[in-house]
Amino acid sequence: MMNNTKLLNEILDYNQKFVESREYEKYETTKFPNKRAVILTCMDTRLLELLPKAMNLSNGDIKTIKNAGALVSHPFGSIMRSILIAVYQLQAEEVLVIAHHDCGMSGLKAEPVIESMMSRGVTEETFDTLTYSGIDIKKWLHGFDNVTESVEHSVDVIRNHPLMPEGVPVHGLVIDPKTGKLDLVVDGYQD
Ligand SMILES: [Zn+2]
Question: What are the chain's domains?
């Protein structure tokens, strides 16, 4: 708890100076992406600056959606909704799904996560209640086994979504979180 309080104070102190010294001016742009695209990628720390730098993207260039694993787990979840909003309301004309090697969701099994939850106070009873409510917690917490297949699957879900308009290329890529090298998995112009 102590550490969290410290981090928040650091952030707020820095923020005050950032705003006062008008540092924001060099980032001023609009809500519409200059490069007319939306990226779905992973929340991995190594990609925070590396991914945009490796792709020559600056503030204002693209829409970015992040989650654990760059996954579209549910066709009517918040990730798919964000993509659709980007396409219909925010002038995104292409979609890029960019997963990465050495992802925390790669090979992730539900069991150790559940064990970790239980060691921090979540009870057996809670898991039972969720199960009786029809929630398959093990499936929900499962990551992916193969990053390439995972990207292909997410691209498929987006491309074949009943609410996606025709003619929006959906690309799939995998980035190296050390070098920033991109490997093309699906070229959305080829379909
Ligand atoms: Zn990841």
Answer: 35-106+146-190 (3.40.1050.10), 109-142 (no CATH)
